[in-house]
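Priority: medium. Attachment 1 of 2:
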């Protein structure tokens, strides 16, 4: 095969091609990148002022699939799970985390959202927990060891409550993966005199 005036054997081209593929696979799903997500993650949701448990708050965990890209990695939705806090305000999520079995990809997350009507949601209104050393990954590691307290601030004015709903919904998550969150957002919107926007079962 001729290329730019030089003759290059097909075997040599295939060797180089195979080397690129192997490097992509091993740098994309080697020891630096997990194929399987961690978990489970434990927490307790409480009122930031009274420290009373918040019963029935929705906790949504979202995992993403990472893949090598040109210049930077790309990320796409992989899976999601949601639970409600119990009578003590406690939750466990991610007991059966997703895996990314496509060669060259890895699992990222989960990103956690906690929402309850008339409260500022986590993480936008984060009062506690303060992220430990290691940032968000450090927080997830701590949640694997013990139940971490999440303090949500009560929102008291109409303006605060309307503002408190902005960006709460991760739009990349299909509705069938977040029916509990959809229901609570609709409930909050109705209480504020707004139209419900999500399908409910």
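Attachment 2 of 2:
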């Amino acid at each position: 095969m001729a290329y730019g005036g030089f003759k290059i054997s097909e075997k040599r081209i295939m060797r180089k091609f195979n080397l690129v593929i192997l490097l992509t696979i091993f740098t994309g799903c080697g020891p630096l990148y997990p194929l399987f997500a961690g978990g489970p993650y434990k927490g307790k949701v409480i009122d930031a002022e009274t420290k009373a448990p918040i019963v029935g708050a929705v906790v949504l965990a979202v995992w993403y699939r990472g893949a090598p890209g040109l210049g930077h990695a790309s990320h796409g939705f992989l899976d999601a799970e949601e639970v409600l806090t119990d009578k003590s305000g406690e939750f466990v999520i991610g007991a059966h985390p997703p895996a990314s079995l496509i060669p060259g990809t890895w699992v990222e997350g989960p990103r956690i959202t906690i929402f309850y009507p008339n409260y500022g949601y986590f993480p936008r209104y984060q009062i506690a927990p303060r992220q430990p050393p290691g940032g968000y990954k450090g927080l997830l590691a701590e949640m694997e060891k013990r139940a971490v307290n999440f303090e949500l601030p009560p929102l008291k004015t109409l303006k605060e409550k309307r503002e408190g709903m902005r960006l709460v919904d991760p739009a990349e998550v299909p509705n069938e993966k977040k029916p509990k969150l959809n229901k609570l957002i609709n409930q909050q919107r109705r209480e504020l005199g707004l139209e419900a926007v999500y399908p409910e079962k």
